[in-house]
Amino acid sequence: MKKTARSPAGIQSDPAALARIYARQFCELAATRRHIFSRLPLRRVGTIFEPGCGTGLLAGELTAISDARYTGMDSDSRILPAGDMFIAGDAVRSLPGADLYVTSFFFAGVANPLSWLRRVRRKLSPGGLFAVFAEYDYAATKIHPDHGIKEKLLSGLREAGLNTAHGGKLDRFFRYAGFEKIDGGIVRTTSRVPDIEFLTMYLEELPGPLPQVEWRIVWGIWRK
Questions:
Q1: What is d(CA 112, CA 150) in angstroms, rounded to the nearest whole number?
Q2: Mean pLDDT confidence for 94-120
Q3: pLDDT higher than threshold 60 for residue 1
Q4: For residue 7, is pLDDT > 50?
Q5: 191: left (phi > 0), else alpha (psi -120 to 50), else beta?
Q6: Per-residue pLDDT reduced to its tens digit, 51-89
Q7: Tens digit of pLDDT for each residue in 176-212?
Q8: Bridge-partner residues for 6, per DSSP?
Q9: In this structure, are strands 180-188 and 86-88 parallel, antiparallel, or unpaired?
Q10: Which of 21, 26, 66, 193 could disulfide-link to 42, CB 3.0 to 4.6 Å?
Q11: Mean pLDDT: which of 9-23, 119-133, 140-154 is highest?
Q12: 197 vs 5 pLDDT, higher one
C-alpha cells in the first residue's frame, strides 16, 4: 500500500490518513516482527536499507535494537520523517549496497520483482540478507459476504498501480533470483470490518453494510 498516493478517482490521498493506516497495520503485526527480529543478526550487520520505508515505523524499531547504519527510501516525500536516515526517491531504481535489505508492504508496488531482486542480490554484501516483514497476498483475501466486493477491491488496487498477485509469489521470486530461504510464514488476520479509510482509497463506493474481511500476509527471510 505504501506506493499509492492516489485513489481510483484520482484524488490525492491524505498523508495523515496514510499514516493512520500504516500505524494500524504496524500494531497488528507486532508479534510477527518480534519473531523476525529474533532470526536476524541485527548486532552484526553494519548497514540496513529499507525500500518503501513510508513513515519510518519499522526504522524506529530497527535502530533501537541495532547499531547498524540505517537508510530508508520512499517515493512519497509527504510522509517521510525528517532526518538524514530518510531519502525521497524511487527505491526500485536506486539500489545502495547493504548487509540487510528489509521491506514492509513494498512488493505490490514493484512492476518486475524478479528483475529487481536480481539487482538487489548484486548489491548485497557476501552472505547478505533480505527480510520481508509483511506483504499482502491480495488474491487470497477472504470477504464475507462478498457480493462482488473482492473483485472490485482488487480492481481498485490494480487501478492505483498495485500488483495484487505479487504477495503470493514471493517464494518463487526470491528462489528464481538466486536467494536461499531461511525462514518464512503466513499470518491471517481475524475476520473483521476493514479499515474504512483504506476502502475509500480503492472502492468507488462503500458497500453497505460493510463485510468482514480476512487478510493473508506473507513474511520471510532470505540469504544471498
A1: 24
A2: 97
A3: no
A4: no
A5: beta
A6: 999 999 999 999 999 999 999 999 999 999 999 999 999
A7: 999 999 999 999 988 888 788 888 888 888 888 888 9
A8: 12
A9: unpaired
A10: 66
A11: 119-133
A12: 197
Residues in the chain: 224
Q: Which amino acid is at 209?
A: P
| Cβ atoms 135, 106 nearer than 8 A | yes
Q: Is 178 left (phi over 0), alpha (psi -120 to 50) or beta?
A: left
Buried b (16+ CB within 10 A) or exposed e, 28-37: ebeebbeebe
* Residue owning grid cell 538466486: 178
